[in-house]
Amino acid sequence: MKKSVFLSIAFFTLLMISCNTTTNTVITEKIPTISYVKTFGGSGNDIMKKNEILSDGSTLLLSSSSSIDGDCVGNHGSSDICIIKLDNSNNILWRKMIGGSLDELSYDFATTSDGGCVVLGTTNSINGDISINKGKKDIVVVKL
């Protein structure tokens, strides 16, 4: 009995010593500095969902927005889907708010071969850009 208690204490002591060892890690890579900051949005909540750099160097930004001003003008109600296209210097080329008087949330987009995009989200609305709703929250697919 004494031998097993001694072995148990010795085992846990060794375990504690090995778990408490620390190693000093030297960071050899240079920490990057911030070279550019730009924000997009307005006075409401603007929540980024996806961005993609296109073959021409422009960028598409997809968000859900409750803003009625700033970069997300044209809100139809509570929250709308907001898609913004930027040039290669991050200036706004165009923006589109998609929605109705209730909640729309963005989820994803895919670019199309004709230079447009298909936007995926959900909707609770039956007005504004959304003419049909089959229940409470429906999937919405919009081609731009």
Rg computed from alpha carbons, rounded to a whole number of angstroms? 26 Å
Mean pLDDT: 85
Side by side, the strands of the main sheet go 1-2-3-4
Structural class comes to mainly beta
> What is the number of helical segments per DSSP (H or I, 4+ residues)?
1
Q: How many strand segments?
A: 7
| Low-pLDDT regions | none
Description:
The protein is mainly beta and 144 residues long. It has one helix and seven strands. A four-stranded antiparallel beta sheet has the order 1-2-3-4, with no helix packed on it. It is globular, with a radius of gyration of 26 Å. The model has no long low-confidence stretch (mean pLDDT 85).
Which characteristics define this entry?
mainly beta; 4-stranded antiparallel beta sheet; 3-stranded antiparallel beta sheet; 7 strands; globular
Compose a concise summary of this entry:
This protein is mostly beta strands. The protein has one helix and seven strands, in the order αβββββββ.
